[in-house]
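Question:
When you can, review this sequence-structure pair and walk me through the tokens.
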Amino acid sequence: MGEVPLPSTTPLPAVPRNERFDVLAPRVPLADLGVVHVLAAGGAGMSAIVRLLLDAGVEVRGSDAHDSPLLERLRERGATIWVGHDPEHLDGADTVVVSSAIREDNPELSAARSRGLRVLHRGQALASAMGEQTRIAVAGANGKTTTSSMLTVALLEAGQEPSFALGGELSTHGVNAALGAGSPFVAEADESDGSFLAYRPDVAVVTNVQPDHLDFYGDFATVEAAYLEFARTITDGGLLVVCADDPGAERLAARAREASLRVLRYGFAEDADVRLVDPVLDGTSARAVLVEDGTRRELRISVPGRHNLLNAAAAHAAAVHGLGVEAQAVLDGLAAYGGTRRRFETKGAARGVTVVDDYAHNPGKVEAVVRTAKEIAGEHRLFVIFQPHLYSRTRDFAAGFAAGLMPADEVLLLDVYGAREDPIDGVGSQLIAEPLVRAGRSARVVDAAAAIEAVARDAREGDLVLTVGAGDVTHLGPRVLEALRR
């Protein structure tokens, strides 16, 4: 799998280019986009593009395979949205926006290519929406949605009126993107297909550098090379903020300094520039002392876990040292953060059993959320319903997923959610179940109905149920609650 990291002194391999999109091409000015058609407009990332373009006064159309409440909200905002894909939807369009998940044989994308329309990757369209604002891009294998959301809320509370494009909806605002009146633009930067090279940020945050998306990069060394190239896209005089607790991010920091980039490190490490000490994890909240420039201040957040203290420290470092916002104002803003949908989102409780949903879909994310959930459950039991995302990721990281799920008392594994991938022979959720069973844990592969039935039958007052994954497992929470009530 190529997961052995290279020392920071070893030359890195070349980064593969996304052959479908030239993400290093000059940014297309917003005024030059014309009428924009967005494929898969109901997706988390694509709906953010629709919102931003509408806010900027651009005429936006779009399509998706299935209707949804989100699409209806986009229609209410002024977008023309069709259900189903038809080349006629492109009539009058000047620019078509897609993601890497859209296959080339999609009838609308195929028609756009044949007509010679401008086709942009989602990341390129986001770069156009950013314009000349002060750009903050948050990247990393884990934590980027929460960190970018925390930073957005902190800036909003501090009166900065930022623009933002996030991977999830803010619980307190109900949206994942908006154009603000202020200068900062906070964007979650997706590394999965190399598109995070499109943004040219003034401040870049890297929460961690870990093996993931090996279907695109091939090995961990190439992943590390991509993050270094991302750091090199920072504008002159900009700032790279990295986690001092993550070995991959630490190697990135060393290489970035060699490239004469300005680097700031945060974390629990004793030599961190923005250091966390004396953490207290208190159920669904956490606090720590934040030390910077010899000053000690209290950091409080209303979300659980040590990992979220790190995310908050990253947001603080970017706002204070990257944007010059007053430190206490940022800390007050972080205390007001109310969470992001699908990031340890409580769906409800029934019969004394709490149901939580989380988007975690790589080993690091799964390990963090399961560990945090088990700490909250305490002496009670933790049930995890996990749906692996992508066959290639399941193949490459089955052992890592099993290790992350190990603290759970009961693991119910759904079949792999293939998303953009076709099945791979011999690859399925049993690859995760087998090491768990060998270790003496309770784990089995079931369908959604059987998972719901098992939880409704076996869960007792005080237990915690966690639905985990980037696929349609997110729809199970309400069904679990309904079954518990019955």
The mean pLDDT is 92. The CA atoms of residues 391 and 418 lie 6 Å apart. The first helix runs from residue 44 to 55.
